[in-house]
Amino acid sequence: MDYEIDHADHARSVDASVRVDEEDYAMPELDNIEDAFNADDYYPSVASYPANDSAFLPGDDDSGGDSANEHSDGVDNIGDYAADKNKSKNALLDWIPLRDSLLYELHRHDGLQRTLAICSRCGDDLNTPLRCKTCFQSGLTCLSCIIEEHASAPLHCVEEWCGVYWKPTSLGILGLVVHIGHMNFRCPAPETLTRTLTVIHTNGIHRVKVLFCACGASAGEASLHYNQLIRVRWFPASSKKPQTVVSFDCVEYFHILTLQGKLTAYDYYQSLVYHTDNTDTDPPPRRYEEFMRVARLWRHLKMLKRAGVGLCPGGVAVAGPGSCAVECPACPHAETLRHREDDAIGSRDESWLDTQFVMLDANFRLKCKDRKIDDPSLGNGLSYYVENKAYMTYVNSAGLQTEMNVCDSGLHAVDHANTRGGSAYSTSGVGACQCRHMMVRPNGVGDLQRGERYCNMDFVFWSAVRRLKVPRLLISYDIACQWNRHLFARHLDIPEELQFPTETTRFAFVIPKFHISAHGKSCQSKYSLNYRRDMGRTDGENIERGWAWMNPASLSTREMGPGARRDTLDDQWSFWNWRILVKLGTTLARRLDEATLEARSQRASHEQFTMSFATDNIAAWSAMIDAWNIDPQHAPDPYSEPEHNTTIIDVRRQLNDLEGAETASGVLPLHKTSATQFLVIGIELEEQQRALRLMKAKTRGNTRVIAIEEKDVALCRKIALWKAIQQVYMPCVAITPRTPDGTDNSDATAPSVTAVDIRLSLPSSLTPAERDVECLSELGEKERRLHMAQADDALESLRKHLRVAATLFDHRMRQTAGTGTRPNTRMVSLLTRYNDKVERDAERYRAARAALVSLDPLGDWKLRFHSLRPSHIRYPTRDQEDVGEGRRKISWIWKNVAGSPNDIQEGLRVEWAKSLARAERWEEETMLVKEEMRRVLVFLDIKSIWWRALAHPCVVEGDKITESGMKAYAYKQAAIRQSLADDFASLWLRVYADHGLGVPSYWPERYQSVIPVQKQVRRRRERTKLHRRAMGLDEVDSGESGEE
Predict the structure, then answer these.
(1) 472-477 and 425-427 as β-strands: parallel, antiparallel, unpaired?
(2) What is the pLDDT at residue 679?
(3) What CA–CA distance (Å, rounded) separates 228 from 527?
(4) Between β-strands 472-477 and 429-435, what pairing exists: parallel, antiparallel or unpaired?
(5) Phi first, then psi: what are they for 213, rounded to 5°?
(6) Which helix (H) or strand (E) holds 510?
(7) How far, in Å, CA of 250 to CA of 237, rounded?
(8) CA distance linking residue 439 with residue 448, whole number of Å
(9) Cβ neighbour number for residue 614 with a 10 Å cutoff
(10) Which residues pair with residue 212 across a beta bridge?
(11) Which residue from 147, 149, 141 is spatially nearest to 124, judged by alpha carbons?
């Protein structure tokens, strides 16, 4: 009865589908688009990002995105979240007393579950009971009934009762033959030969007997075996006499798993093997290579299908470069640019809102081993990778490209551009170009051969931007200060198809906010995203977040052939871009919400700070900032603090000039080693003593101890030689060398005395009474000047080593963590080495300051050189425990506090300029996000119209079913875009209403009347405090704060 009912239901569904095919293909009116179609063609079945997804969601700040459920009502506060966690824990504990009962229920499935051995379908007695594990509530069945029942379900798993237990068998062994070519009906004239196919399905690997159609109803292409298999949703591994097929369900499921979880094909295939036979007593035939072939072809075909290539006249042959990439709807396109002359939002020029923001970077985790495989790419240049032949031709023609590192930074992209990589790898990594919203640009990825060479990055950059028609292009790159120096000269050698109209576009180059801290002082302002105007709150680090998501794929892609690797990474980036696109609603809503509150808060804080200064000062500072924004390369830098560093070399040169003048006047030196050289050597010996003392404290092991003892002996000899000179310049104190505790040591080279114990007795180590002799007065002044320079040098070295150590630590967390023992050990050793350097710098500074305290206790040097505590030695970015960037305090070592009133005024100017920059960047972010929202709606509208337009010319002569499928797919994709636009607009209007912004008149008209939905956009934990500050209810903190 069930079988007959199933046939009747199927017949009615077929008739209904035929009637639908004959109707006009008008755009359907849908109340709930999610009920009307399954958007699996754009990965909708993938679960949202994991709970810790902040590094993967679009965002321009270092706090990343909110949780995956931010789009819907959810936990509103930490207390509710904790309550839900406790509730979940209690629900688990409720099962503990029921374990025995659960085991009984599981064992029930291992038995007959029925005392009478009769067929549940026909009622006949059963000689050999059979059952299906896949069917829902399947009972005991006879042979004929189970074959009849599974005529349309040949991939179910069945078992037979062998007398004492259930034994696995298969429908093929039981005699099922599947007729292919007529849906669920038998072919009246099938082929005479029955074939046995290996079918890879989600529940295992099956052997299925099939008969292909050979009647006249399957003439032409429909008679081809691979076409008949595809029409029953089985993808053949070969187009000629296929023997292995993979079900659509299986390859789709693997596709989703590998995209979201980076699961390898081998692991997935092996799980199917073990699901089929986990004892290795009856393993299925090996079809791993065939599965790999199908999976790769499936990726490629889905990429073409989603791009509409199958609906366009000419098909694959006319698909252009980058045409299959998922484009960013929030970036400016020629179709989404707005005419602003009649639509000004404010008095400020808004043409900068049409800026295209791009980020460049290289990733050396995505390597590829040189396995000597000739493996072409199926989608060469159609998505994110550049066209390989043209790319390699240009790279090979560029030669070695030796570049000089002219930036004082801790980054080695230029230094190691031609050295990184090894002979075991054909590809050392990839260079990529992303937009501000973290989406990879079409044709914006290229393989690196030896390192981050300019020729590689140039080709990738110009390829990624060649189709842009924007008035301004902003490029963020961690070595932008060097890369842009000869960029336009190198552009002349770029292939003609990549030539860009540089004369009609304004270019701006910046360094990402995290990386800029590792650069020298000359880069800190003119390449800063915090200080340059028309940047919004872009941080330039989005591409690093993309690497964090992509890096797990490197474990499998490095073992692939070059073509398969590029196809796989293209597919991964398509998935990544699509997930970013569908999350733009909540992402932009969150950004607008935060930017609106912060803009009000920072503007109020800046205005309160401005009231502390005279009008003339404000006018002068504002003019200085305006001039610098026009020409940051040459105009005076309003964000640069006054420099007061004098190096030891400068002081030595001055003292040498003074001694030369004394010699010229007839005052001869007392020794061939001048007094200045004597003091410099003494200060260097003190530094070596401190370094040796630190080495002794941290050394373990006999080998290292012996090496340190040798260093100690050598230093004792140097001190002995220096002591001989000391008797000439300091005869009053050089009579008896003393150890630090004051005991005599007449023999500085005695074995019982270590070098670190010998007191050098420089003028600064003496008491004022001991220095109050004629022979020491001039030496004391010279030593004071040398220690002033030493303190400056120590602080500069401390800042440099802190920058490098912070960069190394971030690299370890992003690129090295989890990659194995050797890379982690090397990175820990490198970090330890730089931390030791930081400690030595700190000790050198403390020693110099202690000498200054002794030599000049009342000097004005105290305004510059403060006491250095361990808490002061930190990098100038916010710590993890800090509440936020805008409220942190910078350690004094990153400031150069001046002593004169004019210097203090300059320092206040810098703080005022930074305060203004913070307010302006948040206000720009508000404007930019509003414009991005408008562009998204316009772009989705245009794409919806484009998909509907593709449906009309879809005519397939003699095949109405294929024609109907092509039109249905086009309408479905149009509906997806329309649904996304409606959903985004309704969410954004809610945020507009929350802030009293009003309905934006420059949006497409149909979205201005969309009813705002009651959906939450999770605020940051400080939202209430920000709200009160913006309303003036809390006191505004006008204290010092720093920049990201």
Answers:
(1) unpaired
(2) 81
(3) 61
(4) unpaired
(5) -75, 140
(6) strand 506-510
(7) 13
(8) 20
(9) 8
(10) 180
(11) 141
Measured between alpha carbons, how far is 901 from 917 in angstroms, rounded to an integer? 24
Element (H, E) at 895: none
Residue with tokens 């070519």: 181
Q: Cα(247)–Cα(255) distance, rounded to whole angstroms?
A: 12
pLDDT at 747 over 70: no
Angle between helices 265-276 and 288-306 (to 10 degrees): 120
- Quick one: CA dihedral 74, 76, 78, 83, positive or negative? negative
Query: What is the token pair recorded at 441?
Result: 């640009």
The structure tokens listed for 977 are 């875009």
pLDDT in tens, 601-638: 999 988 988 887 889 989 999 999 999 999 998 899 99
* Residue 77 to residue 64: CA distance in whole angstroms: 18
Mean pLDDT to the nearest integer, 546-559: 93
Distance CA 103, CA 110 (A): 11
Q: Tokens 């707005």 label which residue? A: 338
CA dist., res. 778 & res. 670, Å (int): 13
Rounded CA-CA distance 2/920 in Å is 71
Residues 6 or more apart in contact with residue 455 via CB below 8 angstroms:
394, 395, 398, 401, 490
Question: Per the structure block, which two tokens stand in for 972?
Answer: 């479905």
Residues 6+ apart with CB under 8 A from 901: none
Q: What is the C-alpha separation between 390 and 383, in angstroms, rounded?
A: 15
* 902 phi and psi angles, rounded to 5 deg: -65, -40
CA distance 637 to 950: 55
Q: Is 434 helix (H, G, I), strand (E, B) or coil?
A: strand
Helices and strands per DSSP (H, E), number in the chain = 28, 15
Cα 599 from Cα 611, distance rounded (Å) = 19
**Nearest partner of 624 among 531, 529, 535, 539, judged by Cα:** 531
C-alpha dist (Å) from residue 703 to 670, 709, 714, 851, 882: 44, 10, 17, 35, 43
Name the pairing type of β-strands 368-369 and 425-427.
antiparallel
Integer Cα distance of 743 and 181 in angstroms: 105
DSSP 547: H
The C-alpha angle 114, 116, 117, rounded to 5 degrees, equals: 90
Residue 121's contacts (CB-CB under 8 Å, 6 or more residues apart) are: 2, 3, 139, 141, 142, 145, 149
% of the chain at pLDDT higher than 70: 73
Tell me which residue of 802, 794, 796 sits closest to 844, measured CA to CA. Answer: 794
Residue 361 φ/ψ, nearest 5 degrees: -170, 165
> Which SS3 state, helix, strand or coil, does residue 171 take?
helix
- Number of other residues whose CB lies within 10 A of the CB of residue 812: 18
Q: Tell me which residue of 889, 918, 212, 987 sits closest to 605, measured CA to CA.
A: 918
615 vs 759: CA distance, rounded Å: 57
Which is it for the CA torsion 348, 349, 354, 359, positive or negative?
Answer: negative
Distance, in Å, from the CA atom of 541 to the CA atom of 530, rounded to the nearest integer, reads 13
Q: What is the pLDDT of residues 768-788, one digit of tens each?
A: 777 776 556 677 788 888 888
994: its two tokens? 């929350």
The predicted model gives 117-125 an average pLDDT of 88
pTM above 0.70, yes or no: yes
Among residues 579, 560, 38, which one has the least CA distance to residue 260?
A: 579
3-state secondary structure of 488: helix
* C-alpha distance from residue 957 to each of 129, 746, 954, 962 (Å): 51, 110, 10, 10
Q: Sheet harboring 166-169: ordered strands across?
A: 130-132, 158-161, 166-169
Report how far residue 572's alpha carbon sits from residue 430's, in angstroms, rounded to the nearest whole number.
14
Mean pLDDT of 1013-1034: 51
Helices 584-610 and 901-951, axial angle in degrees (round to 10): 160
848 vs 785: CA distance, rounded Å: 10
Secondary structure of residue 31 in the 3-state scheme: coil
Residue 91 has a pLDDT of: 85
Task: Answer whether 685's CB lies under 8 Å from 693's CB.
Answer: no
